[in-house]
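User: quick one - fold this with SAJ bound?
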Amino acid sequence: PEVCVVGLGYIGLPTAAIIARSGCRVLGVDVSEHVVNTIAEGRIHIEEVDLDGLVQGVVSRGMLRTSLTVEPSDVFVIAVPTPFDDNHAPDISYVLQAASSIAAVIKLGDCIILESTSPVGTTEEMRDLIAKLRPDLKVPGISADIPDIAIAYCPERVLPGRILEELTNNDRSIGGITPRCARKALTFYRRFVRGECITTDARSAEMTKLVENAYRDVNIAFANELSIVADRMGLDVWEVIRLANRHPRVNILQPGPGVGGHCIAVDPWFIIHGAPDDTPLIRTARWVNDGKIGHVLSKAGDMIEANPTARVACLGLAFKANIDDFRESPANKVALALAQKYGERIAIVEPYAQALPPAYDGLGASLIDVDDAIESCDMFIVLVDHDVFKSIPLAERVSKIVYDTRGIWSDQPAHPERPAGHLRLA
Ligand code: SAJ
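Assistant: Sure. Structure tokens for the protein plus SAJ:
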């Protein structure tokens, strides 16, 4: 089939490239001229392992083209953003815009698939819009006859940094507006997915995606709450978690400076918004994880003020280990707030940054490398568990005052100037 992928971001572009590699002619559509032109030249506008070579290959073989506008195809895949507004209400306007541009070109036998993370009911809302715009077509779930088109919701669940591998190997939920729609979408995904494809209805598939990320948020909140309790009790939370996880049915996640990224801190709000009176746990988890940033800031501030001559290195800005994405990052929020308060005393170590983000302009903080930090800084605040930080040998940090929010240095001895709660038991 010919395939049109609408939205060429972190999900849409790798998806378009993998579909093209499976032998379909793919048209990638995006609203950004820069994105459309970059990909048309066989280059990419995002960082993702092995994506550059794959895109270059499928573009040069003519299997992937790009355009600013949707064209007739057999299958349409929508992968546009679904942000939330200031009140955490989901904004599905990009999905509806994509659906209306697709409605203008669809024909009998086409299949429309929504992949964007969406509040429950979005696929039906999209279906209703298409029915309204195309009264000439029999639309699934509305017309009693065999429908002319298929509509399905098939969420992605890939991890940034492992997108290509996970796009191919992860299991997928395939949610049809009707069972017939699900079967149609299933035939399409089987072309390029090696994982198991499990069919369901569209609403269940929408909820499944939200639940996966809310599950992780709630579990990280548990770990973050434990880390605050452990601080208060003078315990090493990493030691406690390590020991508790030896229980065959306990698997506690890792505390950190908060939860970042574009999914886990966002998607739970889509569930809360859909059932505001029935989601105290999910809402509280959001509150705990957002609050962890404040806890880290105040503890770091106390340590910096207790050591007025210390030069401070903040290790990491990224939202998680070994990636170069500094947006929606608790590490960046902590480092920026410290830079705003302590200016020149703050050095940032971030091997994935060429320069500090513009928000740091004029604050006096500097970007330095690991060796400089070891040489010139007295205090290390670990905010990201990048491999390059993990591998700093004990000898090079033994004399530092350390606040390790990620627990990467289990061999770090207690320091007389560090607050209680960091005595290592192992
Ligand atoms: N984090 C912790 N402690 C942990 C694990 C994570 O503090 O034990 C933090 C990370 O440092 C980061 C945030 O949580 O700030 C999110 O990181 P992540 O690696 O858990 O997830 P993402 O945002 O990169 O990707 C998630 C994944 N969802 C799940 O694992 C349930 C991915 O599979 C989804 O496809 C993706 O969201 C998405 O697009 O929805």
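One thing worth noting: The pocket of SAJ is lined by residues 117, 156-160, 212-213, 216, 220, 253-254, 256, 259-261, 263-264, 319-320 (CB under 6 Å).
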